[in-house]
Amino acid sequence: MRVSVSQSEIPAADADLLAVGLCEGEELPAEIASAPGAADAEGGFKKLSAVFPERPARVLVAGLGKRGELDPERLRVAAALVAKEAVRLKAASVAWALPEGSDPDALAEGLVTGTVLGAYRFDRFKSSDPEEPEPPRLDSLTLLAPEGVAAAAEVARVCAEAQNRARDLQSLPSNVATPSYLAARAEELAADHDALSVEVLGREEIAAKKMGGLVAVSQGSAEDPKLIVLRYAGGGSGETLGLIGKGVTFDTGGISLKPSGGMQEMKMDMSGAAAVLETVGAVAELDLELNLLAVIPSTENMPSGSAIKPGDIITQYSGKTVEINNTDAEGRLILADALAYAIEQGADRVVDIATLTGAVMIALGSTYAAVISNDDELAASVEEVARETGELVWRLPLHAEYKALMKGTFADLTNAAPKRKAGTISAAGFLEEFVGGTPWAHLDIAGTAWDVGRAYTGSDASGFGVRLLTALARSFTQ
To answer: Against a cut of 0.90, is the pTM above it?
Structure first.
């Protein structure tokens, strides 16, 4: 989407539709206050009202609620609602009058993010009727705002479009978005940016490196697993940030087979990988001054005659042994190898992101992702950027008693605790065994990757994590 900033007055707005925000108890701008429909405009949050001045021809008033509650998240929601209405009205371009506020950059970010995300749709596999016109698309946004917000608007555009690309990856069926497809996307990103390089390891190379977790999970599938390693050399004097994304492109549960109802959604078990891939793309497009290492272990988890079985014991890349007591607890096995490998390759601080446990949905629903960390400073950084981006996280505790749940009987560890206690935390406790003393944070996005229900992400793929991780990377350059 094209995003620009203009200092034009409201009557001169050059767009198919002009949007104006209205807080409760406040007045519309003088240019449209006496126009037909203005008397019926409402300031209640999420309310939309049409106003018809002579210039511009169409105005949509978006209710923003109480002035004291106005923040970027409210503007993301309002902008998404306007974007959807613009598509219904067949408007290809929208202009937004930036509301007054103490932080114009943050408000501009909200409008841009909400518009770009709200205008998204995934219709790649729908046949078109040659006799019907193509559905309209919103492809242009102009902010009527001071010139000084242009930089913030551009960052918001890059991040939101990267999030939409992650949503595309999530939405693709698993017969398309295979591990090889994700690897090809990584190679495409590297080809587009000089500071990016990529290395892709296949089944034989993964086995040769003795990555027992990735070998074990992938051995039931005819699809080749891939270990995707992206390196971004942006310079700067800081440490190397490591990002790890779970890339299970379809998860049947393996021999510990999942129920069939809703299994089609298990194509989205690579949402962490999608978020990391497109975060790397956004970081490179923004030309951030930091060094970044991304490691994505990708595979299917399938039942077959060669699949790993409950009771098997494997050796992870770090050398630790693990009893496989549930083949549906596969994500932690491949993440364990990737975490150890990223740290060996020079990552100084590591964040992993994964649709890891159903338990997190019971604990936090779809409003917050869980963050679990061995480092207070890193956890605080994640929480801060989460508040800024609206991709919210809630920190859960680590404790020796939770880690004790993952101790093995016949091996060092088990991949599934025998007691159903603190499933999200005990899974993170398993991962902590593979990071040593390296500052590490784990994001469990099983509840926020899909069907969040917010106006700007809807009820399917959300692309959660792209804006959060990009903002985290930006914070390390300041």
So the answer is: yes
